[in-house]
Amino acid sequence: MSVKPRPRGKLVAIGGAEDKSAKAAILGRVLKLSNSETPVVGVITTASSIPDEVYPAYEEAFDALGAGEVLDVRIRERRDADDPKMVEMIRRCDVLFISGGDQMRLTSIFGASKSLEAIRSIYHEGAVIAGTSAGAACQSTTMVYGGSAIDSLRKGAVKMSAGFGLIEGVIIDTHFLERGRFSRLMEVGATNPEYLGIGLGEDAAVLFEGGIIKAFGPGHVILVDSSRITSCNVFDLSDGEAVSVHNVVMHALVEGDGYNLADRQVLSAKQLGAESLELKDAYT
Amino acid sequence: MSVKPRPRGKLVAIGGAEDKSAKAAILGRVLKLSNSETPVVGVITTASSIPDEVYPAYEEAFDALGAGEVLDVRIRERRDADDPKMVEMIRRCDVLFISGGDQMRLTSIFGASKSLEAIRSIYHEGAVIAGTSAGAACQSTTMVYGGSAIDSLRKGAVKMSAGFGLIEGVIIDTHFLERGRFSRLMEVGATNPEYLGIGLGEDAAVLFEGGIIKAFGPGHVILVDSSRITSCNVFDLSDGEAVSVHNVVMHALVEGDGYNLADRQVLSAKQLGAESLELKDAYT
Question: Number of folded domains in chain A?
């Protein structure tokens, strides 16, 4: 959209239900992306209504995967999000991981807080910010927070709000294949074709780095590109009426595939070339 | 949110139903902001379903107010938005005016088009971009496009989507006092307190310039600042349930008042000081 200094950090969005075992493909790579032997990993469970169950599972997983230290960044209400102790914890992180739950908990509790400022600032300085499910959906400027999977291609069916703004020009949806959410991102694209829909399957992830998306993990990543839609009736409808939209382009990416956000081109593992090799180094 | 080169142009959002007579306070000022004696003014009526009525009214108004030339940038479908003639017309404009209607027509037709690229680029190079009603609502990164005025403080009642992204960190609503839309921006703020709600009354406007908002015109501008909300239940609700939100701060601005977006402080005409004088020069 305009020239903006690119964050030096790395952003990872995960589709939910990622493997947390010792073989965890995605979580293991998230740690490796930090380029630290013993990264400090902070876990934010604000999105979840059961943090006492969620946190220990991640603590164990990250410990097993080689974290130097795992921090429980326990933010439950708005006042916690301005607590200097929480801000200090976030600032220490090489990797900050945002758990699943409800993305509106994240935006409503973190919006305009010192903790959110700290997240942005470590991201710009070089940290890895990763999130799964709600923790992925919240990353974009405008986010999806609801909408029936059965038929969201009806005006007003998809619920959107303002997200954390860590990545521009995309809208991220999760549990995408498992819950059949294709129609949600088709409606989103109809309302504004400029936004690339990123539908993350479970145990699938994307890395955003330097204007390129890279898919990884065992699952699928579906891209919904509405930039070339030729016509659409969404503005002629009342709420609940069926949306027509022509010429939506979709891509199903798997591990090793990439995508150039600027020119909207899929990049095969081969085309990613040197960059891909570089990634492999970081991963293994 | 991050360091971004500030556009050299000026952005004006108008609440709708602005005076179009020879005394038109707001439209007259919009032309003056161009610092051109005889500005070229382009009018985009894409949001409207009756462009043949809307365009001539603005043509007459801008002619009477001293435009050097008024251009009918007639974009009705997505293919028009990529038409080089339209792009060329937009690039000639000192002032680009976006009429009212339905903001979803604007985003759905302009999204990912060459015309939208041209609008962004003239804005960054120094042009005045102004819009009324739908033409104002579309300016932010996340926009409101619907929601009952009677009671929008219910989860999911406010309809949001991705806008043109000309201004970050705010969400603009229009016809605000006339249609009693306070509850819409209160719900928006509850979902993400980081976003300042700007509720524009009819025949009221704001100028965005250098991180400052300046109110002008005969009507009111209501600011809804949710950044200090202490608690909110929106994430605990199902769709349609009543949202609670505590400590929302509102300001009613009139002509001459300002607001600093970074520190969320109202600036009186006096506090605007030299800047205010400068504005007056530009206005008269």
Answer: 1
